[in-house]
């Protein structure tokens, strides 16, 4: 079921500072910051040769990463996103296997304009897993 | 400086259970478990098309992931490993930029038989960064 690792997401308290670390200290190619108010984050993409890291800063009052940063003030790895060919088939197979899909199980349109679902970290060794149909 | 994401490491309390989740629930290709006593872990590689996830279970009394699992009993994302072409040049550039290299700064031979260094998570938004010379 799992395809490529689409991205590794890192929640950060200060996006400008984090971007400077990845660009200047680590010498990586970084994008411009993009505000995604419908997702409650501002994002910078760190482009690696085989995948990308996404630096996420909370945006607005109901950001989905606010609780994570309240527990991890310095930031930290937030989720891994895997590509799948058919998100509905993936969801149904996961549910049949007993894994919990977050929300009502209906894919939402994610930050890349494609259908996404999140899986419960308790069913995946404490790792929040995102699936994105590509 | 940063090359490919070599792997994303996930610390797990029960490697057999975690392997079953990635193989059976998520439908990924997984390796046999390999005990690496010199690194204090037993590892299973989850092979994705563009990178890999490494599931790490503590091995022995002085495992480097024991403290992490004491704080995160279910497991969780532990570090990201990036490839670099020249680990000494990378180390010196990082040190010049003020980033802290863990240990005495001398690369050790990592789980893949190649020189590795770890960088202080406090200098990288709470993310433990491994560099591996390839």
From TrEMBL, chains A, B:
GO terms for molecular function: methylmalonyl-CoA epimerase activity. Residues 4-134 form the VOC domain. Its EC number is 5.1.99.1. Pfam families: Glyoxalase_4. Keywords: Isomerase, Metal-binding. InterPro entries: Glyas_Bleomycin-R_OHBP_Dase, MeMalonyl-CoA_epimerase, MMCE/EMCE_epimerase, VOC_core. PANTHER family: METHYLMALONYL-COA EPIMERASE, METHYLMALONYL-COA EPIMERASE, MITOCHONDRIAL. Belongs to the methylmalonyl-CoA epimerase family. This is Methylmalonyl-CoA/ethylmalonyl-CoA epimerase. It comes from Rhizobium aquaticum.
């Amino acid at each position: 079921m799992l395809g490529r690792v689409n991205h590794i997401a890192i929640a950060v308290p200060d996006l400008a500072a984090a971007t400077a670390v990845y660009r200047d200290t680590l010498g990586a190619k970084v994008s411009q910051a993009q505000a995604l108010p419908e997702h409650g984050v501002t994002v910078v993409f760190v482009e690696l040769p085989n995948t990308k890291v996404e630096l996420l800063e909370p945006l607005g009052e109901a950001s989905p990463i606010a609780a994570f940063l309240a527990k991890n003030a310095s930031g930290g790895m937030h989720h891994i996103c895997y590509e799948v060919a058919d998100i509905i088939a993936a969801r149904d197979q996961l549910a049949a296997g007993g894994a919990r899909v977050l929300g009502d199980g209906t894919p939402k349109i994610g930050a890349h304009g494609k259908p996404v679902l999140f899986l419960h970290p308790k069913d995946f060794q404490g790792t929040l897993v995102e699936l994105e149909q590509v």
